[in-house]
Structures
1.
Amino acid sequence: GRKLEFDFTGSAEHFNVQLLLPPNVRAQQTRLNGREVQTTVRRIKDSTYLVLPPVDGGVHRVEVDFA
């Protein structure tokens, strides 16, 4: 299986995280700081984004397993 992992941080009070997905790829499971989170999919024209729930400020790690 394919997997994406990244860390992010910033001085914002809250983050809205949207990940542009490659064509014909579906997220199977998403974890934020080691805990599974429910995501939604947003389509804009020919692009598909994986949308995480709002995230509080601080240092975070996201892991996405692709199907």
2.
Amino acid sequence: MTQDEMKRKAAEAAMEYVVHDEIVGVGTGYTVNHFIDCLAEIKGKIKGAVSSSEASTKLMQAHGIQV
């Protein structure tokens, strides 16, 4: 398994801790980018997100996640 695949698996595992109908705190980094991609798949089930960086904010907004 490549490092990128491991990061994706870590992001997918973190999704188990996302509480629906709440606001999600999102960090920064390559693994978080995968997390944001996963989060986009359930964006209708969360209230929105807060972001630790402009890069994460831009990626979430590109996915239609309210920041």
